[in-house]
């Protein structure tokens, strides 16, 4: 296995030495420089590492400026940049995202957490990112299940960021987009008042929009509506771009605000097959049994059925589908669980979320049936199992 290479750029010699030793123990191949200009030369050169940890403050060129020049010169997904700093205000983070930073590492940091984040970044660079508007939509739907973190989006040299807090959209950053601050004039907030609040929030580390409300400068309802429209415009702009690459960065939201919105309030899902129709894709080298078309359609009429799909157990592809799965990556994990032991004929894998049942049933000849059921409308899966048994599924009734 090739050891992933990472460039560490920090003028603290001792910190670099300790960090390099720790990363080596965890299978990384670190390279060290102590000046921003050296980091920039190495990352723009041939055979550059795919990941970099840049300290914000370095001699001659800051880590922020190194990242900004990298994105201008190279664009693209690599190198994947971690910016290390004790500066964690909203304004600092937004400046980092604007420059093309992928993740922030706050000082002091936990080494085990840092290693896990580096390993996750390496997996994304190996191809686990989602592509296009449908890939981004899938990540948004998965995050709306209750996750917190960020979805990073790359479009050529531009960078976008969607901040998710407990399943709701808290902010959308779009590089190059006009600032929302001038739009506050629509609510009667003057430019002078905006500058004063920004300075107050910078020194006191207070959420900007919440401070506007607390100071009585604008009604909460009016500000909430303005933010909803702004986030919707930015999110729809990201979803309109087909040549994007996106990936989810789980963890606590990088900044907090009491203004966050369910995904459905901001955007509509991409157009799929007409309601009531079964979308069908070919299975590589296999003929889809005709009886499963009726099975998928009828099961999709059960109370709370959000998605029913026939899955090719060999490739993991969704073939016959009614509805859209909320978390296709979860489905693939369920397939792996179903096949974990070829000597034991598992019939079903079920995962229960706060509001949704996800269930995967083994059918004949390595075909699988996936169902996504809203628990509020259908709190148990008895009817689904009965319908499968009634259709003489060869494995039903086997215990």
Strand content: 15-25%
- Class by helix and strand content? alpha+beta
Q: Kindly provide the radius of gyration, computed on alpha-carbon positions and rounded to a whole number of angstroms.
A: 24 Å
| Uncertain regions spanning at least 5 consecutive residues | 272-284, 392-399
| Morphology | globular
Largest sheet: 6 strands, antiparallel
Count of spatially separate domains: 3
Distance between the termini: 41 Å
Number of strands: 16
* Share of residues in helices: 25-40%
Mean pLDDT: 78
Helix-strand pattern, N to C?
EHEHEHEHEHEHEEEHHHEHEHEEHEEEH
Produce the secondary structure layout.
Elements: E1 5-9, H1 13-25, E2 29-33, H2 36-44, E3 51-55, H3 63-73, E4 80-85, H4 90-99, E5 103-106, H5 111-128, E6 130-131, H6 132-143, E7 149-155, E8 158-165, E9 168-174, H7 191-204, H8 208-214, H9 220-239, E10 245-250, H10 263-266, E11 279-280, H11 291-299, E12 305-312, E13 318-323, H12 328-338, E14 348-352, E15 356-362, E16 367-374, H13 382-390
Parallel strand pairs: 1-2, 1-3, 3-4, 4-5
Antiparallel strand pairs: 6-10, 7-8, 7-10, 8-9, 11-13, 12-13, 12-16, 14-15, 15-16
Give a written overview of the molecule.
37% of the residues lie in helices and 23% in strands. It is α+β, with helices and mostly antiparallel strands. It has 3 domains: 5-126, Rossmann fold; 129-271, no CATH class; 279-390, 2-Layer Sandwich (Beta-Lactamase), CATH 3.30.450. It has a 6-stranded antiparallel sheet with strand order 11-13-12-16-15-14, with helices on both faces. Strands 2-1-3-4-5 form a 5-stranded parallel sheet, with helices on both faces. Helix 2 packs parallel to helix 3 (63-73) and helix 3 runs parallel beside helix 4 (90-99). The radius of gyration is 24 Å and the shape is globular. The protein starts with a strand and ends in a 9-residue tail after the last helix. Residues 272-284 and 392-399 have low confidence and may be disordered.
